Amino acid sequence: MTTQQLHLFNGLYLVVLVVVAVLTRATARRIAAALAGGTAAGVAALGIIRFGEQVAWWRMAITWEPYFPALALIDFALCAFVFLITWRIARRFGWRGLAVAAFVAAVIGPPRDYWYMTRFPEWGAYAPGVAPVLAISATYVLLGILGHGVMRLVAGPARADRLARRPWEAA
Questions:
Q1: With a threshold of 0.85, does the pTM exceed it?
Q2: What contacts 91, CB < 8 A, 6 or more positions away?
Q3: From the CB of residue 142, how many other CB atoms can be counted at a distance below 10 Å?
Q4: Beta partners for 23?
């Protein structure tokens, strides 16, 4: 992946974040919390990517000079829109909804990543076998839990949000 591609993804993710923030009626605090969750997930993701390279589960075209990981971290932070969506899922369906979302991410994540690597082989490659598939699946679940957890720490529980109350409930 080139720095130009990361800039392109950063712009795209920023637009998606703004659209999702408007559609979910996110407050400034919730947006800040989602960005904090995205940043925490980004730090963990960079560590997982590095670890996966060390144990030969995959090879990524990442230059580990400071500029590239910093740009990738911004990319992950702007994926905060995911946590605005999980916030709404948690508000509506509680922990069961989050469990279903984590399961869906675990199932969809590996085929998505393998498709990207097939479409853009210059980005890297996965090792053969089931270990990379399980690692990718576990990574999606871990990053979702970590990001949503940090968001909850910063913004509080989703069910306590003012949008979670129904008009007939006391404020």
A1: yes
A2: 158, 159, 161, 163, 164
A3: 16
A4: none
DSSP the chain: --HHHHHHHHHHHHHHHHHHHHHTT--HHHHHHHHHHHHHHHHHHHHHHHHHHHTTSEEE----STHHHHHHHHHHHGGGHHHHHHHHHHHHHHHHHHHHHHHHHHHHHHHHHHHHHHH-GGGEEEPSSSHHHHHHHHHHHHHHHHHHHHHHHHH--GGGSGGGS-TTS--
Provide mean pLDDT across the span 123-130: 93
pLDDT digits (tens, 9 = 90+) for 45-55: 999 999 999 99
Render pLDDT for 67-108 as a digit per residue (tens, 0 to 9). Answer: 889 999 999 999 999 999 999 999 889 899 999 999 999 999
> Is residue 85 within 8 Å of 20, Cβ to Cβ?
yes
